[in-house]
Write a structure and sequence with these properties.
262 residues; alpha/beta; Rossmann fold; six-stranded mixed sheet; two-stranded antiparallel sheet; 9 helices; 8 strands; 15% strand
Length: 262
């Protein structure tokens, strides 16, 4: 039986402190089978943000202007054979094929950048220029870098065509990742050694969940890219044979770069 004293004691939410450590939905409040109004409204807001990230076109002009300020050369803009955002979402195959690559000039550089909208233009608009600036600082001056290419209605494999046209040794495709209900602005980086049409996904390395301050930061992502680029050049390949050695000790890093670790 409740007494006046026990009725006045506020309930303690044991999940409150843990919610500050993750963007995941944990310990949602409910009454019977119904979630609290605050949680329902937050879910609807996050769902709307995810839909917007998928359907909103990339601000290509803004991204190009930002890239021009990095001093990497005049950016080229290309598009896939998907004629609209709706077709891009219905036909992933068209997003892997270029419409016209005449704007892409052969450079023969070590590294090429492709900035692709993917499934979150929001992520590209928010993070891409700053991320490339950080990666370029990590890779230069030991590697030459081709002028960047901005690709719209693009899937990862579109980069193989662009990388071949650029004539680069290693291609980095920076692309908006599929948004979730807690993160709508996450970027991924796909590294391919000797890019050319027909490369399999198993021949790429992926660095994902880049969205500071809650996800992987630019500097950490650049450090991983630097390790993978060095490893790919030593191994002569990317993908499943190439391991991230950015946090390994020197002996392990050397063995991984030579493909001696499984």
């Amino acid at each position: 039986m409740n007494t006046p004293e026990t009725q006045s004691i506020p309930s303690v939410d044991p999940w409150k402190s843990m919610r500050g450590l993750t963007q995941a939905r944990i310990g949602l409040q409910r009454s019977g089978n119904a979630l609290s109004s605050a949680d329902v409204l937050q879910f609807q807001a996050d769902h709307a943000a995810a839909r917007d990230a998928v359907h909103t076109p990339m601000d290509s002009d803004g991204v190009v202007d930002g890239l021009k300020g990095l001093g990497l050369g005049e950016p080229a803009v290309v598009t896939s054979q998907a004629s609209s955002r709706a077709e891009y979402l219905r036909r992933p195959d068209l997003g892997r094929i270029p419409n016209d690559l005449s704007a892409v000039q052969h450079s023969g550089a070590d590294i090429g950048f492709v900035i692709a909208d993917g499934l979150s233009a929001t992520a590209v608009d928010t993070h891409a220029v700053a991320l490339i600036e950080t990666i370029a600082a990590e890779l230069s001056p030991q590697f030459s870098i081709a002028p960047p290419v901005v690709a719209t209605q693009a899937r990862v494999a579109l980069g193989d065509h662009i990388g071949e046209a650029l004539g680069v040794e290693i291609l980095l495709v920076i692309i908006g990742e599929r948004p979730g209900l807690s993160v709508a602005d996450s970027l991924g980086i796909y590294l391919t050694y000797r890019p050319e049409p027909g490369r399999r996904d198993s021949e790429r390395n992926c660095i994902s969940n880049i969205h500071p301050p809650d996800g992987l930061g630019y500097r950490d992502a650049a450090r991983i890219v630097g390790a993978l680029v060095s490893g790919a050049r030593q191994l002569g390949a990317s993908g499943v044979a190439l391991k991230d050695t950015s946090s390994a000790d020197p002996a392990v890093a050397a063995a991984a770069a030579q493909g001696e670790l499984g």
